[in-house]
Amino acid sequence: MGWFDAFIVVFASGIRLAVPLILACLAGLWSERSGVVDIGLEGKILVGAFGSAVGATFTGDVWAGLALGVASTVVFSLVHGYASIDQRANQIVSGTAINMVADGLTALVGNAIWEQGGRTPQLPDQAQFGTIEWPFAREIGSVPIVGPIYQRLLSGHDLITYVAFLMVPLTYWALYSTRFGLRLRAVGENPAAVDTAGISVRALRYSAVVICGVLVGLAGVYLVLSQEAYFQPHMSAGRGFIALAALVFAKWRPWPALATCLLFGFLDALAIRLQGVELPAIGPVPVQAIEALPYVLTVVLLAGFIGKAIPPRASGIPYVKER
Amino acid sequence: MSAPLAPLPQWADVALIPLVNVAAAFIISGLVVLAIGENPLEAVQILIGGALGDLEGVGFTLYYATSFIFTGLAVALCFHAGLFNIGVEGQAYIAGLGAALAALHLGFLPGYALAVAAIIAAALFGAAFAAIPGYLQAYRDSHIVITTIMFNYIASAVMGYLLVDVLRVPGQMNAETEAFPETGRVPQFHEILSHFGVHWPVTPFNLSFLLALAAAFVVWLLIWRTRLGYEIRTVGANPTAAVYGGISPARVTIVATLLSGALAGGMAVNVILGEEHRLILEYTAGFGFVGIAVALMGRAHPVGVILAAILFGMLYQGGAELAFDKPKISRDMIVVIQGLVVLFAGALEHMFRRPVATLLARRTAQPPI
Description:
The complex is a heterodimer of chains A (323) and B (369).
Chain A: H1 2-33, H2 41-59, H3 62-86, H4 91-114, E1 131-132, H5 137-140, H6 146-154, E2 157-158, H7 159-177, H8 179-189, H9 191-196, H10 201-228, H11 239-249, H12 254-273, E3 278-279, E4 283-284, H13 287-302
Antiparallel strand pairs in A: 1-2, 3-4
Chain B: H1 10-35, H2 40-52, H3 55-80, H4 88-105, H5 113-139, H6 144-166, H7 189-195, H8 208-225, H9 227-237, H10 239-244, H11 249-276, H12 287-297, H13 302-325, H14 332-347, H15 353-364
């Protein structure tokens, strides 16, 4: 069972590493499907993480942490929305600004409050999300093959993990089976047509931006309230950009987004697992190669060498109503 | 919807609006300082004192400014072609590899020819690394913003591997190459001045500064005084019209990214050849991203870029001093200011247009008789 056990361990850690990617990727999907390009995911993960750390530290309550994390991320999202929708700004410039302000501000304020170089105090157990054990996990766990899968892959994660996985079908349903979703997708492809039908482009894009803020905020909350139990400057460590890569790789669709994020999560888990391991004939594993793989794959896909990734047609273009 | 924006007099467009935008960024920054319980005016005083108070401060300020002129020009040049190059960070990082390889392995070159070769290698490596996203944008239809973001991470992974596993001096703890020979370095001003008996405190301020000024002049010449510059600006303004005028946007894209990458390489010249004298892990320290703020603040004009770069040089040097005096205002404050400058001078650049236009119109309106 050595190999199988190792497989389960890497798989389980891959799921944990994939959760923030899934949430951030879906966030980007909502925003970009409505025509608002968002390269500020990275910064907003930090804002969500920092907000939740502040909320949970001062109240000792995990829900207050969650609320503050999500709320502060939505505020940042709205700034990006205001620039992109009302000011018709270059959305790349706006996203870059969000990333910089978030990166600097979280570290600055964290350092000003606790004077530990930006790190927040370790959260007590009751201010973190605990793991949820599925029924009979321990009993079924001893069954070969199925047992470990049930006990260690499906069961034993925290609330946000399950929410993240639920968000995938929910996003799919909302985008493809509701009137709101149809309109939202239309506004990302041809806003003039939506406008002609008497539907507000502005309202649709703002709602997409808010949904984006909530989801990417959860990604940040997860890092603090589910994983590390403290905030540290720059702790998003490029996850926002990996999520962006996953979004491109998934061609802006929810289910492929889930698959890509899981793949990137497993690659990450594998890189950690293989650190310093000597492989026969290859020698030490070049861990950096595995880490760079998501970026390389995305570039290759974007270049049209394996399939073609075509963004929503109106993404990145501010809508100007005819005068 | 809103009425069309009233035309502004040219002086307001070129000078007033950008100043108002940057002022807004600094006022918000002041409020942030106030919010964390410090006095913004006192902070500004310490910052300016640290940046310009003595020759040592000035030396460091100009050393940082040199890097920012290069990265700012790299971003600005691409702006003119309608391209957003977020990859200056990675391009400068890879350029450092070129500089280090040349300085370490071309030791047979006589005298300062080695330094010149290292400078050329830096430019070539930077240009080559930028040209890949440029090619993918021009011929494979992939968006340069996404590719350059990905390339920053690819650069980081490649350099991490090379510095930790290949280039590191055996038995050394730090992930860095061995020191370059004396002739493979760009001389620092205090060394040069001491030959003439002039005393200047020891700072990393080096000859790259002059190279940066020259680069700025060449960029100005290129953009506004050459046929290629005209083509670049035409493609940036309207690629369809450019095609109609017989200009190939694909070719212009490649050329613009090549030049941009070479300019990014200037940062390696300043930091790697001018100060560190060895290639070190993550040496770019986010300065490539500062270039975005510098280019936006300088309105993509070389003179504006130089002025903005000096301002950011002051922020980085004075900010270090400030963080020492007031530990609460850590160096992260500079990143906040940088982000706010990008936000107000870039994303929200038209926000103050209407109020300013209204104000000016009211002032110039004829009083009723």
